[in-house]
Amino acid sequence: MLDITDLRVTIGGRDILGGVDLSLRQGQVHGLAGESGSGKTMTGLAVLGLLPHGARATGSIALEGRDLLGLRPKELNRVRGGEIAMVFQDPATSLHPMLTIGRQLTEHMRHHLGLGRSEARSRAVELLAKVRIPGPEEAFGRYPHQFSGGMRQRIAIAIALACSPKVLIADEPTTALDVTVQAGVLRLLRGLCDDLGLAVLLVTHDLGVMSAVADEVSVMKDGLVVESGPRGQVLRTPSHPYTRSLLDSLPEAHAVPGESGQQSAGDGETA
Amino acid sequence: MTDPDGPSGTATAVPEPPEKAAGTRGRRRALRHPLARFLLRRVLIAVLLAWGITVVTFVLTNLVPGDPATANLGQRALGDPAIVAQWRQDHGLDKPLPQQYLIHLGGMLQGDLGVSQQSHRPVSQDLAETVPATLELAGAAIVVSLILGVAFGVVAALRRDRLPDHVLRVLSLIGISVPTFWLALVAFYVFFYRLQITPGSGRIDPGLQAPPPVTGLATVDSALAGQWDVFASAVGHLLTPALVLALYTIGLLTRFTRSAVLEVLGQDYVRAARAKGLPGRVILFRYVLRSALVPIITVAGLAFGSLLSGTVLVEAIFAWPGVGQYAYKSATTLDLPAVMGVGLVVGGVYLVINLIVDVLYGVIDPRVRLQ
Ligand SMILES: Nc1ncnc2c1ncn2[C@@H]1O[C@H](COP(=O)(O)OP(=O)(O)OP(=O)(O)O)[C@@H](O)[C@H]1O
Ligand SMILES: [Mg+2]
């Protein structure tokens, strides 16, 4: 679905990514782990062409065969939000504080899908219900500050899903949330992935989170993917010493991921 | 700026769970719309402040040393204590100050601001003629500086560290550092005396028939009357003094808008909007400018205060028959009723500007309005 090969990014002569290879498959969650500053966010931003000012990217990022790095701005804008969506790290700052939830949920639907006002509205309410926002009709007209952190993150996920993208990049979607809320958001992601056949890139530095939902796992260090493979293999028999040290630093309970495989998807929980 | 309800105070407001918000809203039925309640509160505060202004101008005016009787009666009359006492009684000056204030307040509520010792006409009549002239000048300067200042600031931010940014940086620095009175003199000398491309002093060319007064604004009145030659002349006369007056504010707003826009451009929600594939102009107007407007409005409100004080000098140099000239004349001749009247007008204008700024905060930012 999405194949990243030999992605290199430099900012002001400094190498941020030194040849990243990743591939996402439909209906699968691909976990991307690694310490702070290893280039996880940069990889996600590169896919959407949202690298910071002055960054240069080479290599290839192919979405169903089309190279995204070569797209013109207009075509890239159609891919953004429409085919590839992103959920950002901090739900407190990734929604505009002065625009209603409804506005932020519908504007790109109307732009990408050409929906009318009322169509977009009913779809938005549906989406809010899908991410389990209580009272979706009323929530539509409210502002971000009237929701809790967990709810805002679900709203951000609803916004990302609005145009039925094929790929969802979730950049540490749970780091800013407390543990109980985290579980709910992760189950939600897993469920959406199974139901809608999304390809998800789940960025996290938390191997516990990883072991709970990911199908495939990649580990990054210093702008390189040092290890990649099915979850069970990477987490139980890591081949790279860095992965092993990451695993060793985990509390006992997480270190041995359950064999059971599939998690129950989308159990309700309140934020 | 010092308003505790301003955006700086609410930016970190604790998020309120929606259930609770719904509960309080249901209880207060009468003024359910949050914006209406917000506006009402602001207007009440403004009325209170207006009353405060009347007290302050009254007290200040009475603190000024000098006896109004001396200023108004002739030498002979002053020699006779009975006449002086009679005059004081006639003008209510024999009563205690608080009572004088009440009489003054009562008169003011009926539009009576006393009689100017200079023009020997009611102060309210003098003000009715001079205030519109100043409103036209200052209003034009405010509109021009808002449009140009914000536009320049946005361009500078979007073209950061490139040629337009550098050029605008120099221009805004000039705008901020050149004194308004000097600029007014130079503009008048160069464009009127030397190049003769701008009309001279006053509001319209002397040969023209002034339009029937409706609003008191020469441009609007002449347009309403369909006198287009007068309209053209009024615009021509307005242009140079308004630009001179606006230059400082343009420079200031350019700088502030630039930094406000740059700050917002770095926000997560702008990147999130880009990730949604929205067109650039939607992101600029809906996402970036809306947030940037909050600090811009704060600065604009303050800048307009200094713009008003600039009108005194600009009016003097361009012989513009406005409040600034009137204030200058009445202050130098100790014409107390006139000074008091001008004080009220200026205080009232500040009040209105502050009210507009406060209301705009609420309109733009739901976190201010929904607390
Ligand atoms: N705007 C920028 N300009 C230059 N370098 C940057 C910029 N943003 C990030 N970097 C550098 O890029 C590298 C990768 O950063 P990135 O944000 O991708 O890390 P990360 O893996 O997401 O870390 P974290 O877990 O802390 O989010 C870091 O070394 C960082 O210093
Ligand atoms: Mg990151």
UniProtKB/TrEMBL annotation, chain A:
<dbReference type="Pfam" id="PF08352">
    <property type="entry name" value="oligo_HPY"/>
</dbReference>
<dbReference type="InterPro" id="IPR003593">
    <property type="entry name" value="AAA+_ATPase"/>
</dbReference>
<feature type="domain" description="ABC transporter">
    <location>
        <begin position="2"/>
        <end position="247"/>
    </location>
</feature>
<keyword id="KW-0067">ATP-binding</keyword>
<dbReference type="InterPro" id="IPR013563">
    <property type="entry name" value="Oligopep_ABC_C"/>
</dbReference>
<dbReference type="GO" id="GO:0015833">
    <property type="term" value="P:peptide transport"/>
</dbReference>
<dbReference type="GO" id="GO:0016887">
    <property type="term" value="F:ATP hydrolysis activity"/>
</dbReference>
<keyword id="KW-0547">Nucleotide-binding</keyword>
<keyword id="KW-0813">Transport</keyword>
<keyword id="KW-0472">Membrane</keyword>
<dbReference type="InterPro" id="IPR027417">
    <property type="entry name" value="P-loop_NTPase"/>
</dbReference>
<dbReference type="InterPro" id="IPR017871">
    <property type="entry name" value="ABC_transporter-like_CS"/>
</dbReference>
<keyword id="KW-1003">Cell membrane</keyword>
<dbReference type="Pfam" id="PF00005">
    <property type="entry name" value="ABC_tran"/>
</dbReference>
<dbReference type="GO" id="GO:0005886">
    <property type="term" value="C:plasma membrane"/>
</dbReference>
<comment type="similarity">
    <text>Belongs to the ABC transporter superfamily.</text>
</comment>
<dbReference type="GO" id="GO:0005524">
    <property type="term" value="F:ATP binding"/>
</dbReference>
<dbReference type="InterPro" id="IPR003439">
    <property type="entry name" value="ABC_transporter-like_ATP-bd"/>
</dbReference>
<dbReference type="InterPro" id="IPR050388">
    <property type="entry name" value="ABC_Ni/Peptide_Import"/>
</dbReference>
<protein>
    <submittedName>
        <fullName>ABC-type dipeptide/oligopeptide/nickel transport system ATPase component</fullName>
    </submittedName>
</protein>
TrEMBL record, chain B:
<dbReference type="InterPro" id="IPR000515">
    <property type="entry name" value="MetI-like"/>
</dbReference>
<feature type="transmembrane region" description="Helical">
    <location>
        <begin position="293"/>
        <end position="318"/>
    </location>
</feature>
<protein>
    <submittedName>
        <fullName>Peptide/nickel transport system permease protein</fullName>
    </submittedName>
</protein>
<feature type="transmembrane region" description="Helical">
    <location>
        <begin position="338"/>
        <end position="364"/>
    </location>
</feature>
<feature type="region of interest" description="Disordered">
    <location>
        <begin position="1"/>
        <end position="28"/>
    </location>
</feature>
<feature type="transmembrane region" description="Helical">
    <location>
        <begin position="38"/>
        <end position="60"/>
    </location>
</feature>
<keyword id="KW-1003">Cell membrane</keyword>
<dbReference type="InterPro" id="IPR045621">
    <property type="entry name" value="BPD_transp_1_N"/>
</dbReference>
<feature type="transmembrane region" description="Helical">
    <location>
        <begin position="230"/>
        <end position="253"/>
    </location>
</feature>
<comment type="similarity">
    <text>Belongs to the binding-protein-dependent transport system permease family.</text>
</comment>
<dbReference type="Pfam" id="PF00528">
    <property type="entry name" value="BPD_transp_1"/>
</dbReference>
<keyword id="KW-1133">Transmembrane helix</keyword>
<dbReference type="InterPro" id="IPR035906">
    <property type="entry name" value="MetI-like_sf"/>
</dbReference>
<feature type="domain" description="ABC transmembrane type-1">
    <location>
        <begin position="131"/>
        <end position="361"/>
    </location>
</feature>
<dbReference type="GO" id="GO:0071916">
    <property type="term" value="F:dipeptide transmembrane transporter activity"/>
</dbReference>
<feature type="transmembrane region" description="Helical">
    <location>
        <begin position="170"/>
        <end position="192"/>
    </location>
</feature>
<feature type="transmembrane region" description="Helical">
    <location>
        <begin position="137"/>
        <end position="158"/>
    </location>
</feature>
<keyword id="KW-0812">Transmembrane</keyword>
<keyword id="KW-0472">Membrane</keyword>
<dbReference type="GO" id="GO:0005886">
    <property type="term" value="C:plasma membrane"/>
</dbReference>
<keyword id="KW-0813">Transport</keyword>
<dbReference type="Pfam" id="PF19300">
    <property type="entry name" value="BPD_transp_1_N"/>
</dbReference>
